[in-house]
Amino acid sequence: MTLQELLRELQEFWSGQGCVILPALDLPVGAGTFHPETFLRAIGPEPWKCAFAQPCRRPADGRYGDNPNRLQRYYQFQVVLKPSPDDIQDLYLESLARLGVALDANDVRFVEDDWESPTLGAWGRGWEVQLNGMEISQFTYFQQAGGRECAPVLGEITYGVERLGMFLQQADNVYNLLWRAAPGPVTYGDLFHRNEVEQSEYNFRRADTALLAQQFDGCEAECARLLEDGEPLPLPAYEQLVLCSHAFNLLDARHAVSVTERQQYILRIRALARRVADAQYAAREALGFPLVPA
Amino acid sequence: MTRTDSVLFELGTEELPPRLLGTLRDALRDETLAGLGKAGLIDNGSPAATDAYASPQHLALVVRGVRGETPRREERLRGPAARVAFDDTGAPTRALLGFAGKCAADDDQIERWSRGLDLETTDKGSWVAFRREVPPRPAADLLPAVLAEAVAALPVDARMRWGDTAAEFVRPVRWVVLLYGDEVVEGEILGIPCGSRSRGHRFLNPGMFPVPAPGDYAEVLRTHGVMVDMDEREASLRRQIADLESNWPGGAVRADTDPGLVSEAVCSVEQPHALRGEFDRRFLELPVEVVTSVLRGQQKYLPVYGEDGLLRPAFIAVAGVPDASGAIAAGCERVVQARLQDAEFYRQQDQRRTLGSRVSDLKRVGFHRKLGNLGDRTRRLIALGARLAEILEAPVETCARAAELGKADLTTDMVQSFPDLQGVTGAHYARADGEQEAVCVAIREQYLPRHAADELPQSPAGTVLALADRMDLLAGVFGVAEAPSGSRDPLGVRRACLGVLRMILEGDLAVSVRDLYILASEQYPQPLRDSCMDAQEQALEYFADRLRGHMLERGFAADEIEAVLETGWEEVRHVPARLEAVREFRAHPEGAALAEAHKRIRNLLREAPPAGGDLDPDALQEPAERRLSSLLDSASGEARELCAAGRYADALRRLSELSAPVAEFFDQVLVLAEDEKIRHNRLRLLQQLREAFLMVADLSRLQG
User: Fold this and answer.
1) pLDDT higher than 80, residue B2
2) How far does the CA of residue B152 sit from the closest CA of chain A (Å)?
3) DSSP string for residues in B123-135
4) What is the pTM of this model?
C-alpha cells in the first residue's frame, strides 16, 4: 500500500465514521494537535468529529536526510472525536485491519503514555500504539486544554504516516517508501529528501536567531493585542501563537536558548494558550454553543 | 442456616498501566472484603476466601462464602433519660414523644416506658430504650454499593475521564460483571450497568460471552484467550523464557530476567508469548550500557548473555499473540536495529572531537540559575576535588583530570538521547581518547550511588569526585535557600545527602561533614560563599536528619540515636560504633540505673551550673566523693584512649564500672551543700563524670 493509498484509506474510513475531512493547517506546526480543529475544538462543551492529514515540523529532529528513520518534517493523520466514543479503540483497530494489518498475527499494543503539551497547557491520558515494537500512533483522551478541563473529553488518534507506511511496505528506509506506484513509482525520497537536507542545514546552521527571537516577540505581542481589543479575535490570535511556537522550535534546534530561556519561552506560549482558550470559550458561549445537541 | 454463595466482580477496562496492576488487584480485594464485612455479608473476610485477578483489560475478584442476606439483628436506640421521660403528672414529655416518633413506637411501648420497663440502665443512669428488629437485607441490594465504594477507594492518584460522563477511573471502563451465584446483580458501577458478560482477547477471541458462575470465571476467560491470573501468566512467561534459553541456537544462554522487566511484561499482555530476536553483531562495539539501555529501557526487552557472561547480539521480547509467521520478531528486530543505529550515529558524531575539547562548551550549559553554568561548576569541582584528594589521600592529578572532564559528556549527542548514561558515556569517550584508566573510572563513578541500594564508587578518585559533586550541590542549594521541603526536591538534595553519608560510613572515611560543607562553600565566589557559610547550621541539621533516618533503618532506637547525635556526629564514621556501644550498654544490668543517674546529673547541672575552675581534690571531704573522683580519673583516662582507638563499647564498659561508686556518691553525699566552695566542687565532679560519658553518648537521653 503506497502512502498515497494509505492516506486515502484513512480518509475514507474516518469519513465513514462521520468525521469531517479537512485540509491541513497552512501554518508550520509540530503536531496535528496544534491545528485549530483539534486545540480550539477541545475547548468548551461542543461536540466535533474531524480528520485530516497534517505535515508536522520538528526542526530538532532533522538528520540531513542521512537517517533512515528520523525526519524534521513528517506526516500525521489526525482524528478528532469529541466526545470520545465508547468503541474508540475498536474503531482504531478496525482502521488498522482495513489497511491490511493482521491483528492476530502481529503484536499491536497499547503502551501507557500520557501525552502533554506544556506550550498549549494541555495534557491527556492514553497510550502510544506499538506495532511489533514500533510506535505507529498516539492515542489520547484530552483531560485539559489551554488550562481548561475538557468536558466532554476529546479523543485524539494520531497516526504516524511514515511509520505505518514502513510497516505496510516492509521498508527499512523512509526514503524508499513508495509514495505512489502507478503510472510510475515516486518514492518518499524523490519528493522530500532534498527538503530534509536543506531544511536541516537551515534549522541547525543557517537560521537567523536574532530574527527568530524578534519574530517570537512580535507574534506574541500581536496575539496578546488581538485578544485585548474590545472585540477579541481568537482565531487570528491563535495563528500568532502557532507562529510563536514554530519560532521557538527553530531557536531550540539552533541551540540558541539556554535551559532557563527555554523554560521562559514555554511559559510565554502557554500564557497565550490560556488566553486564547478563554477567548475561544467566551466566543462560543456568546453564540450559545450552537453545536451542543438541544 | 443462611445461604452463602460466591460473588464475581469484574471491571472491564481499556489497557491499564502495567505498574498498577498488582496494586489494583490487591486493593480491590482488600477494600471489597472490608466493605462486605461492614455490610454484614461476611464475617472476618480473609483473602483465602478470594481469588483476585488482573490483566490489562480485566480487573476481577471472586469472593466465596458471601451470605445471601444479612443476618437478622436487633437494633437498640437510646432515648432521653428515664427521669425526664415523664412529667410530674405522669404524662410523656416532649422529649419522649419526639423519640417515640422517631422510632415509630406505639402507645403500648409508651405505656411500658411509663411503668419503668424497657429501660437501658448503666451505673451512670437509666435511659428509655427502643428495640427493633432489623430485617435481613438481600446481598443483591447491598453488593453494588459495596463494590462501588471499593472501586472508589482504590489507591489511584491519577484518574481520568472519558466521553461525556462524569465517571473517573485509571482508564475508561467499558463493561462490568457482577454475579451472586449464577444471578446477575442489578446495579451500576461508574455509570455502567452490571451484567454477566465479559470480553475475550482483543485479537484472538474478540466479542462478549456470558460467565455462567463465579467459579467458572478464570476458566471461561482462559478459553477466550485471556489468562487473568497474574501468577499463572508469570509462570507461563518464565517457562517460555527458560525454554528459549536452553534451546538457543549456538548454545544455551542466560536472559536478564530482571524482576521489574518481567513484571512489566506480565502486566502488559493477556497471554504472554516470548520470542527471540537478534541484531547486527557490530553494535556490540557500542558501550554495553548503551545497548542494554536501548533493549531494556526503551524497548523493555530482555538482554541475553552467553555462558561467558558476555552480551549477545540478541534479545527476548514478549508479545501478546503467538508469532506464528515470525513477523513480530522481525518487526522487533527492525526497531532495535534502528535505535542502535541512532546510538552508533551519535557516537560517531561525538567522537569527532575529544572529550577534553568539549570542556569549554560547558559554559553554555546551565546548572542552576543562581549557581552558574556547568563551566563554573567544573571549576569548583576541580578545586574541591583537589582539597578532598589531599584529605582522603587520593591521587591528586587523577582527581583533577577527572573533575575537569567529569561533566563534558553532557554536551554529547549520546547523553542528550540517553540521559541516564551520563558518566558512563564520558568514561567510554575518555578511554577512547587515551585518558588514564583511573580518570575514566572516576568519571563513571561520580554519579554512584544512583539510588539507595546502588553500588558505591570503588576507586579513590571516584569517591572524591562523587563526594565533591554532591557537596557542591548541597552547599549551593543551602546557600541560595532552596533546601528541599517534604515532597519537593527537584535537585535530588536528599539523595545526594544520603549518598555522602553512605560513602563515609561504608568507606570509613576520616572526614567531618562540617568540614566537607565548608570546603565546598569556599569554592563559591562571593557573595555566594558567605551565603553558603551562613546556611551551615541549617545544612548540618538536614544532614543530621538524614543520618537519623539512616540509623533508624539500621534498627537503632530513636532515643539511642538522640543520645549519640547530641554529643556530636559530624565525624560520621564513628556514629555506628557509638550506637552499638549505647545499645550494648542498655542491655547491661547497670544500664538503667546509670542512665537514671545521668538524667539526675544533667538536671542538677542545668539548675546549678558549677562555677568555672578545676576540681579541687582537697575540697573533697566525704570518702564517697574522694573514691568517685579517683576512680573517675583512671576510668576516664582509659576511656579516652579507647575512644581514640574507636573502641566505644569498651570505653562505655569501662566507665560503667563507676556505676556502684556513683550510686554510693548519691547515697552518701549531699551535692548541693551549704558551703559554696564544696557545692561547686561536687558539681564540677559530676560535670567531669558526665563529660567522660559524653565521649560516647549522652546517656541522659535514654528513655526508660
Assistant:
1) no
2) 19
3) TTEEEEEEEEEEP
4) 0.85
The verdict on a CB contact (< 8 Å) between B162 and A141 is yes
C-alpha count within 13 angstroms, C-beta hemisphere, residue A99 = 30
Q: Which residue of B has its CA nearest to A136?
A: B335
Mean of all residue pLDDT scores within chain B: 93
**Interface contact flag, A83 B163, Cβ < 8 Å:** yes
Residue B43, Cβ density class (10 Å: 0-12 exposed, 13-18 middle, ≥19 buried): exposed
* Contact assessment for residue A169 and residue A88, using Cβ atoms and an 8 Å cutoff: no
pLDDT (tens digit per residue) in B233-289: 999 999 999 999 999 998 999 999 999 999 999 999 999 999 999 999 999 999 999
Residue A8's CB is within 10 A of a number of other CB atoms, namely 13
A127 interaction partners in chain B (CB closer than 8 Å): 15
Longest Cα–Cα distance of chain B, Å, equals 110
Task: Average the pLDDT over B103-108 and give the result.
Answer: 86
Residue among A85, A127, A133 minimizing CB distance to B335: A133
Residues A48 and A82 sit within 8 Å (Cβ to Cβ):
yes
Backbone angles phi, psi at B382, to 5 degrees: -65, -50
In tens, the pLDDT along A172-218 reads 899 999 999 999 999 999 999 999 999 999 999 999 999 999 999 99
B412 Cβ contact partners less than 8 Å away, ≥ 6 residues apart: B346, B350, B358, B425, B429
Nearest partner of B36 among B49, B53, B17, B20, judged by Cα: B49
Contact (CB<8Å) A104/B204: yes
Per-residue pLDDT, averaged over A11-22, amounts to 98
Among all residues of chain A, which has the CA nearest to that of B339? A69
| 3-state SS track over B593-613 | HHHHHHHHHHHHHHHCCCCCC
| Closest Cα in chain B, distance from residue A145 (Å) | 14
pLDDT band with cut points at 50, 70 and 90 for residue B1: low
Nearest neighbour of B319 by CB, restricted to A86, A93, A107: A107
Residue numbers in A near B190 (CB within 8 A): none
pLDDT at B16: 97
Chain A neighbors of B269, CB-CB under 8 A? 109
Q: Quick one: pLDDT band at residue B82, thresholds 50, 70, 90?
A: confident
- pLDDT tens-digit series, residues B310-358: 999 999 999 999 999 999 999 999 999 999 999 998 999 999 999 999 9
Cis peptide before A236 (omega within 30 of 0): no
